[in-house]
Structure to design on (908 residues):
């Protein structure tokens, strides 16, 4: 098998060379011989290829004789075109796999071909054969020898069929030839950024495969890319080995959270059709390779010999084989926090935004549509509606969101349209502020903000006033009309209860009362209280007068003495008995005193004193001794009366 | 005696004059606010609600304290889509005239727009009576009544005490009645003052606020309060107010979101 790969390597490298040459020198004719190796071991197979480039009218082709070599395989014929750098070149190639028979140096002559009627010859090559380890190859002569060349070889795309040779481990063979691979374009990205995951089945064996477990993509928003149905195979080389590649799933993923996420594996059940070689009893030698005869057959010379599978020595076997891909670890970085605009709500990519209103002048009966289109590349399918500050004169409804995402675009691109229906409620000019949309651009690693122009909307009053949300009960949702009466326009500017006036006015009547009480007191004093005081102080007044009388007595002024003594006694009586001066008479005094049970010596002494004084005043006779007696009598009478009246 | 009677009459006269000056002096009727009020009404009828609400609000800010003004301001705010302001104005109007059916009706409509609105429990009958009694007079009316009854009481007392001809039991009972009325008016005047200066209730003016478990931005959210929700403010720090909803839920929100009634 190995040499088959080598052939391809050679061809491809050749093609590359051709392309390079063709780029400089188009349509150049060349006929070359190449070998995979000029030095080979004794048992080592190698390839020789005769390549005819840009040859027109190739009428015959004669390979050289390989007399010192065994032809293990071939000739395999290739024909094709390659376009390299816009230059087109055609090629025709024959490849043989040879195994040296002897040790030594051999020259393989070039092949001959007739091109455009001219005989051309390729270059000869020198092969040095060394002695090698023969044991390894002895039981199975060359891994590639097990299968014949495919009949219809197109552009070298041929894949080996699954032939299971004797003694070959089935599991090992399957493991080598069928596997799954997950391709991701990046494993470290920002939240919301896009990664493309491709799940591919690589096979070199004919297989009937079905996907039994699809990945769930936890933590991602996934958008599958539609794949052709039935699946188309492409060819890919892994370590130089060509594989048929079927894309199982191709998904655009947008991580919804940051952190370490994992892409789940995919599981595929295969029914691999293997060709099993059964031992052929017709052959003389059991251990002999069943194809040896075949290769010695003259028909071998013919490149287009019979199909190997027509022969009865093989049988098919379907082997079930379950494979699983490796989980892939994805590191998701959170979006940077600083510099994040307020209007940012999760858009990551590269976007454009347009905002339009369908009309700028309308009545309150109509509706206004504000259309915001966000288009570009990125997580278009995850865009949140941009926040719009609708002025209070409008009723806003949730936006209608329509997507126009380009099918199978990678990176995901398209547009999302948000249609806000606004019901004007109020006449007048209103300004809808500029719509703002921010996104994170992973390419420039920063936030970008797009802003529309603000819209000025003129709203005139419609014919009918719009009704509010209905509650189905009559008049329930109708506002009661405004009050339009003439108001009194009082201001609650001050609290009377807190103003000093309130307290002044409360205190005022109290002051009035106080004033009246004082006034009344004074009036009372004039009437009752003055008499009371006189009564209280009668004794003192009388004694004062008597003192004055005593002074007159010393000076020998008779008249003054008796006058003063008389006045003291009468004054005392007037005060004490509450008789006005004018009303005083002996009779009244006697009545008053008897009313208070004061009789006897006190009264007698009193009247004797009064008589004495009167007599002395009307018949004056200077008698110093008598005056002294009168004075002592007056003092005695007043003090006795004072005692008596106290009780 | 005649002297004293004359002096009381003089006192009464001065008292009345002072009353007239203080109580009715501010009543000097200016047609200007009425014109603006009518202009706003016209704007409202032309569906220019924001402009109308602006004028009403100006008049309110100038200190005019009319239930109709608050009512119209509420209607205009509601139509302009400002639920919080509308409910605030309706509540103000209701404070001034609690039995106004139109205000109650419009408030109920506005409350339909409040997310998470919880209906308040209706007042018990005696609370209703008290409220009706409370609105028998304006707040200053109670204070003026206070003064009048006090003066009458003093006058009656003086007559009863100092004028022998007036001394009878009818006047005495009249005095007791006056005293009782005076006490009632004092209580109502003080109560009216306290109620009007009680700012423990408020309206939430911004939408979608999350009440926190503690007065701290980092504490955990407990419930959501919608614009226009009437809340009782039971406690407050510098920035945060503890609110209690009608259904008993309580939490802390930033004081800037509440407009106190």
């Amino acid at each position: 098998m190995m040499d088959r790969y080598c052939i391809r390597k050679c061809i491809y490298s050749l093609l590359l060379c051709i392309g390079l040459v063709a780029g400089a020198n188009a349509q150049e004719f060349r006929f070359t011989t190449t070998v995979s190796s000029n030095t080979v071991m004794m048992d080592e197979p190698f390839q020789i290829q005769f390549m005819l480039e840009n040859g027109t009218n190739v009428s015959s082709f004669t390979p050289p004789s390989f007399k010192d070599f065994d032809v293990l395989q071939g000739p395999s014929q290739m024909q094709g075109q390659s376009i390299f750098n816009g230059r087109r070149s055609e090629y025709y190639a024959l490849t043989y796999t040879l195994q040296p028979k002897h040790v030594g140096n051999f020259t393989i002559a070039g092949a001959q071909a007739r091109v455009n009627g001219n005989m051309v010859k390729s270059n000869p090559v020198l092969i040095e054969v060394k002695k090698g380890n023969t044991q390894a190859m002895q039981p199975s002569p060359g891994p590639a020898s097990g299968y014949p060349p495919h009949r219809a070889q197109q552009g070298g795309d041929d894949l080996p069929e699954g032939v299971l040779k004797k003694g070959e481990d089935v599991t090992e063979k399957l493991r080598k030839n069928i596997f799954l691979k997950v391709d991701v374009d990046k494993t470290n990205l920002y939240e919301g950024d896009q990664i493309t995951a491709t799940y591919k089945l690589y096979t070199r064996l004919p297989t009937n495969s079905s996907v039994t477990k699809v990945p769930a993509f936890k933590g991602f928003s996934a958008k599958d890319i539609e794949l052709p149905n039935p699946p188309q195979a492409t060819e890919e080389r892994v370590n130089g080995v060509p594989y048929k590649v079927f894309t199982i799933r191709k998904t655009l993923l947008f991580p919804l959270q940051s952190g370490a996420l994992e892409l789940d594996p995919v599981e595929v059940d295969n029914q691999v059709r293997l060709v099993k070689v059964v031992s052929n009893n017709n052959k003389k030698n059991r251990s002999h390779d069943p194809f040896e005869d075949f290769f010695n057959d003259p028909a071998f010379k013919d490149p287009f010999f019979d199909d190997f599978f027509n022969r009865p020595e093989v049988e098919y076997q379907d082997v079930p084989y379950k494979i699983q891909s490796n989980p892939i670890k994805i590191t998701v970085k959170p979006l940077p926090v600083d510099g994040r605009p307020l209007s940012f709500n999760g858009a990551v990519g590269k976007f454009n935004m347009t905002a339009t209103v369908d009309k700028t002048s309308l009545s309150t009966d109509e509706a206004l549509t504000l259309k915001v289109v966000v288009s570009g590349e990125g997580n278009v399918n995850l865009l949140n509606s941009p926040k719009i500050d609708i002025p209070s004169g409008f009723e806003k409804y949730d936006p209608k969101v329509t997507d126009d995402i380009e099918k199978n675009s990678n990176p995901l691109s398209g547009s999302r349209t948000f249609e806000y229906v606004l019901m004007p409620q109020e006449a007048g000019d209103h300004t809808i502020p500029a719509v703002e949309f921010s996104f994170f651009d992973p390419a420039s690693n920063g936030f970008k903000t797009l802003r529309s122009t603000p819209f000025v909307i003129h709203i005139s009053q419609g014919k009918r006033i719009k009704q509010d949300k209905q509650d189905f009960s009559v008049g329930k949702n109708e506002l009661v009309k405004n009050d339009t009466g003439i108001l009194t326009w009082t201001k609650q500017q001050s609290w009377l209860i807190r103003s000093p006036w309130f307290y002044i006015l409360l205190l005022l009547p109290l002051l009035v009362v106080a004033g009246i009480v004082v006034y009344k007191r004074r009036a009372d004093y004039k009437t009752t209280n003055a008499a009371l005081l006189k009564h209280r102080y009668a004794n003192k007044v009388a004694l004062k007068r008597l003192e004055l009388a005593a002074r007159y007595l010393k000076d020998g002024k008779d008249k003054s003495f008796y006058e003063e003594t008389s006045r003291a006694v009468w004054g005392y009586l007037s005060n004490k008995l509450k008789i006005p001066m004018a009303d005083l008479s002996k009779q009244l005094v006697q009545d008053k005193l008897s009313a208070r049970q004061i009789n006897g010596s006190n009264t007698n002494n009193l009247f004797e004193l009064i008589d004495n004084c009167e007599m002395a005043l009307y018949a004056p006779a200077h008698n110093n001794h008598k005056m002294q007696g009168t004075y002592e009598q007056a003092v005695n009478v007043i003090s006795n009366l004072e005692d008596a009246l106290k009780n | 005696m005649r002297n004293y009677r004359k002096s009381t009459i003089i006192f009464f006269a001065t008292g009345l004059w002072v009353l007239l000056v203080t109580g009715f002096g501010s009543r000097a009727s200016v047609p200007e606010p009425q014109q603006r009020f009518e202009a706003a009404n016209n704007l409202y009828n032309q569906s220019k609600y924001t402009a109308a609400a602006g004028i009403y609000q100006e008049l309110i800010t100038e200190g005019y304290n009319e239930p109709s003004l608050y009512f119209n301001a509420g209607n205009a705010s509601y139509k302009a889509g400002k639920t919080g302001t509308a409910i605030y104005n309706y509540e103000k109007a209701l404070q001034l005239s609690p039995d106004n059916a139109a205000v109650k009706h419009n408030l109920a409509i506005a409350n339909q727009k409040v997310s998470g609105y919880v209906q308040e429990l209706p007042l018990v009958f005696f609370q209703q009576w008290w409220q009706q009694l409370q609105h028998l007079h304006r707040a200053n009316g109670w204070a003026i009544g206070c003064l009048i009854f006090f003066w009458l009481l003093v006058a009656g007392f003086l007559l009863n005490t100092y004028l022998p001809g007036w001394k009878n039991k009818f006047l005495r009972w009249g005095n007791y009645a006056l005293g009782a009325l005076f006490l009632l008016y004092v209580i109502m005047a003080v109560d009216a003052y306290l109620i009007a200066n009680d700012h423990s209730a408020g309206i939430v003016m911004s939408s979608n606020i999350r009440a926190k478990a503690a007065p701290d931005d980092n504490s955990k959210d407990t419930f959501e309060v919608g614009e226009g929700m009437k809340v009782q403010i039971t406690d407050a720090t510098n920035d945060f107010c503890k609110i209690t909803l009608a259904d008993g839920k309580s939490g802390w929100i930033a004081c800037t979101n509440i407009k106190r009634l």
Notes: The first strand of chain A starts at residue 30 and ends at 35.
